[in-house]
Amino acid sequence: MQILTSHLKAVLLAAGKKDIRYYLNGVHVNKHHLVGTDGSRMHIVCHGGDWPHEPVTIPRTACELAVKGKTTTLEITPTSIGPISYQPTGGAYPDYTRVMLHGNALAQGVEAGEQMTRLRWEYLRDAEAAVKHVTGKAHFAMAEIKGCWVWSNPTLQVVVMPYRVHAGPKTPAAYSLEPLAC
Asked: DSSP state, 117?
């Protein structure tokens, strides 16, 4: 299956690095999506290809080597990514669909207020880089939904989860977000 190198770069930004939960240290590939998460943030891309195989998690090191090339697309198989061979990471990948937007593109959210202090700013920087890799746009606005900061279009979803819970005023607001097209 062919994927865009920019899509792999986008999800790799959120993939775990030397996490004790070894199954997070890579990019998960299944029928519809490329997914990277470290447990605090998640980037999901619709790869648009035809993945007829069982889902696999490609180790981070193989992904990093593959994106260093100058190609705009990469061929992925269950044992190679571009010219790089890999052994899929074992373990059950988390059910990432639980944090995805589904159905109606209009979702209930919460006004930002002081809740932005709950996020790791480098995660927002990486979210911006992921959006730029996929859309080419450097600036975007995220919405807070159920305590998570989310950006979405039909190709990419970026979810940044808070790392500390603070009680505070919550004012209902509506945000227009597009669910993934796949």
From this structure: G
Runs of H (alpha helix) within 3-142: 5-12, 60-67, 121-135
**Average pLDDT of 26-30?**
95
- Tokens in use for 78? 């269950």
Angstrom distance (rounded) from CA 14 to CA 9:
9
Half-sphere exposure of 15 (CA within 13 A, CB side): 27
pTM given for the model? 0.75
One DSSP character per residue, 70-84 reads: S-SEEEB-SSEETTE
**Token couple for 152:** 């979405």
The CA distance from 63 to 152, in Å, is 23
How far apart (Å, rounded) are the C-alpha atoms in residues 136 and 157? 15
- The token pair that represents 105 in the structure block: 């593109």
